[in-house]
Structures are given as structure tokens and as C-alpha cells.
Amino acid sequence: MSNKSYGCLIVLLLLGLIVSLGLNVGLFMSKLDFDVNADTGLVTTAAKPKRKLHEVTVESSKKTTQDKIVHIDLEGVISSMSMSGLFAEAMPSVESIKNALEQAVGDKNVKAIVLRINSPGGEVTASDILYNAVKKASKEKPVVVYMDAMAASGGYYVSCGASKIVASETTLTASIGVIIETMNYSELFGKVGLSMNAFTSGAFKDSLSGARPMREDEKAYVQHLVMSMYDRFLGIVSEARGVPKDQLKSTVADGRVVTGREALAAKLVDQIGYVEDAYALARTLGKTTDATVVKYRHEVSFFEAFSMASAKAGAQPAKVQLDVSSSLMPKLLPGVPYYLPPSFAH
């Protein structure tokens, strides 16, 4: 290769390095805000304000009006795990649902919110955070929950923060209860000649350890935790639906799932219908005869898209594996409390 060719190659490599460096700096800068102190001249950084979500029309209004009904989807297992970029819309996290609710409440043209829930439930704390966010929003503007195929356990917990609840005839809901799972493999250890030593600061520090049989006092301790969380769940349902705790315990609050029609009979929901009925109810509660229904969508910035494309380009080809047994159900972490129906707990 001639000296001229070497020179061109070096120039191209340098240009590529400069472009890559510029894009990475831009990606970093896009996530920060800078504030310059007028007195000292010092530059400080702060978290960038939440990006406004983009609106997509779902159902247009017939008249010329600025009134809007915001449709928000809560889909899948409720988890504190955060997703970003292209995945934020497909797998909404607790934070993304909260952001959507806050934007809807802050928009003067939004007259009501429809929260569509299609979820078997999930983590206790994540469900409680979303319930509080929905309840807070409903104090500002009407929030109508539409239950799709399933709004059970944690999904129903979240629903209790709404102004009204609409369920389909075939919706599976309720499952008012709490579960903590663990696996015990101490007998297997004995058969293969393995053992585990744990050094703890207290008698309950290694509770739920699968390496040894569970003591009776540990069982009572864990059961107490479960019942404390169950009592909170029960209290929230009782307050939201105006049904005494004792009545709930003797009827539907034993962990069972019920259909939408059975939920209506038990006063767990307000109305049977479809999502269009939820829109109509939201318009009525929002005192608007004609409002456009919109959804929020997360717009991916150029730097996020480039970062994802670069990561994908540099990644090794992955094998595609189909696991039907686990792909349709959430994987429960040992010792973590969940609001989930029985079928999802195994």
C-alpha cells in the first residue's frame, strides 16, 4: 500500500473517531441540563426535565374542540424495572405510567383519563406506587379504569385509585391476596453431599433460605408479613368500593379470580362494557360532550436511536430460543411479595 493510501486511511480513521466522540458527548449532554452561576461562573449540572410525551389520536372528535381524553395503557406484569428508548412504549414501567398521568393532569385541555389495564398484577410496592399515582390523578381529573382481559391482584389494586371502573364480561379480576414464594432444596443437598454455612447477625436474617428446613417461628414471621400486606390491600379495596372488610373476606377476598360480571355483583366494579364505554363515561365525568381520544407515545431521540443501533451492530448474533413454559408467566423472585393470581405463582 502506498504512502498516499496509508494517509487516506489514517484520515478516515481520525474522522470516524471524531464523529464517534461527538455523538457520545452529544448523548451525554442530551441527558443533562447546565446551569451557569452568574456570580462565580461555575457550571453545574442537573437532571434534565422530563421529556414531553407525543400525542397520537385514537378517536377523533366530530366537532372543533380542544378537549381531550387521554388513554394510557398498563400492560403486563407490574414491576419497578425501568425500560428506556424504543422499549419504553412496549413495556411501560411504573415511572412511565406516572409520567403519563402527570402530563395528562397538567394539560388543561385534558378533561379525563382512561387507564386501560391488562395485567395479572406484580410487585407489591410497584402496585402500591401506581395505585397512589392513579388516586392522586383522580383528585384532579376523572380517571376511568377499563379492565381488559385481566386486571387481577396488583392490577385490581391499581384500579382502586380510579374514579370509576369498567370491566368486560369476560375480564378476570379480583384475586385479592398476597404471595411470597421460596424453594427448599435442603433434602437434595443431603443426597448429593452438599451443605451451606451461613453466618448471620440474627435468627431471621437467613429466613427463606432453601438450604435448610424452615423453622416454625420463621413460618409464622413470613405469614405475618403476608397478612400485613393483605390487610392493606383489603383496606384499600374496602375504602375504594365502600364494602366492609368482613364482607370482602367472606366473599371474594380469598385470592380467587372472578369474571367482570361477578365483580359487578360483588361491587368491585361500576359498569360492564368495552373500552368505548369507558371513553363515553370519561366524557360524561369530564363534562365534555365531544373530546378527542389520544394516546401518549415516547419519541426516541436521534442520540438514543444511534446508541441502540450501535449497540445492536456491535452485538454478537444471539440464538433464538422458544420457552413456552416460562414466556407467558412472570418469574417470581424468591422472598419478594407479589400481588398475583394463583396460576401465575407457580
TrEMBL record:
Keyword DNA repair annotated:
no
Q: Which UniProt keywords apply?
A: Hydrolase, Protease, Serine protease
Keyword match Hydrolase? yes
Pfam (any one):
Peptidase_S49
Enumerate the spans annotated as Peptidase S49 domain.
Answer: 137-285
Using the UniProt record, name the top-level EC class of this enzyme in a single word: hydrolase
GO MF annotation, one: serine-type peptidase activity
Q: What is its EC number?
A: 3.4.21.-
The record's section on InterPro entries has: ClpP/crotonase-like_dom_sf (IPR029045), Pept_S49_SppA (IPR004635), Peptidase_S49 (IPR002142), S49_SppA_C (IPR047272)
UniProt-listed GO biological process terms? proteolysis
Give the similarity note.
Belongs to the peptidase S49 family.
Protein name, entry field: Protease-4
Q: Which lineage is the organism of this entry classified under, starting from the top rank?
A: Bacteria, Pseudomonadati, Verrucomicrobiota, Verrucomicrobiia, Verrucomicrobiales
